[in-house]
Amino acid sequence: MSKQPSRLEVREMTLADVGLRIDYFHDADNAHLDRLGVDRALLPSRQEWHRLYEIDDARPLEQREFYSLLWLVDGKTMGFSSTDRIEFGRHAWMHLHITAPSLRRTGLGTQFVRLSAQRYFEMLGLQRLYCEPNAFNVAPNRTLQAAGFRYLFSRHTTPGGINFPQVATRWVLDLGAVKALPTIRS
């Protein structure tokens, strides 16, 4: 019988942490990137990507292009979530990644998505939070549904600057729904 994690924590990703995110994409195998809808050829170099985060980190929160959170289980990083296309006080687009394969399919993703959503609404003053994963990547779509997001539609699109054209599923969580989420201790 496996030991249940004793402590879930969501904390802001600092500039010192962004290497984890950069390495996650650069070190991923092609099959994993395909599930994510990511085109390896579109990834910025590690140095370019780090520089983008340095520039963004120097801005006030209200002007940031990205806001990211680390997911920790018993003090160890197991994944992260990030937002982009932020319109402070209105909406943002969320991304979610479990970096520890052994912790996938455990239900922790749902808890971390809820914790992250609550933090994004609080920190960014959001009215809505969107997420648009690859439609054929079952895990994030199930996680979003279980976390309280509402399905909007699926469409053929290129969801972001590192993505290839794909069918993506759009989900939304609005302020009323996030307030109704069960409280999870972080």
Word description of this protein:
- This protein has 186 residues and is an alpha+beta fold.
- It has a single domain, classed as 3-Layer(aba) Sandwich (Aminopeptidase), CATH 3.40.630.30.
- 32% of the residues lie in helices and 28% in strands.
- It is built from 6 helices and 7 strands.
- It has a 7-stranded mixed β-sheet.
- Strand 4, helix 4 and strand 5 form a beta-alpha-beta unit.
- Helix 1 runs antiparallel to helix 3.
- The chain is globular, with a radius of gyration of 16 Å.
Series of H and E elements: EHHHEEEHEHEEH
Report the sheet with the most strands, covering strand number, pairing sense and barrel closure. Answer: 7 strands, mixed
Can you tell me the CATH class? Alpha Beta
As for the number of domains, it is 1
What's the rounded overall pLDDT mean? 92
Beta-strand content: 25-35%
Structural class: alpha+beta
CATH architecture: 3-Layer(aba) Sandwich
What is the fourth-level CATH superfamily? Answer: Gcn5-related N-acetyltransferase (GNAT)
- By CATH, the topology is Aminopeptidase
Count all strands and give the number: 7
Q: How would the global form be characterised?
A: globular
Protein name: GNAT family N-acetyltransferase
Pfam families: Acetyltransf_1
Domain N-acetyltransferase: 8-176
InterPro entries: Acyl_CoA_acyltransferase, GNAT_dom
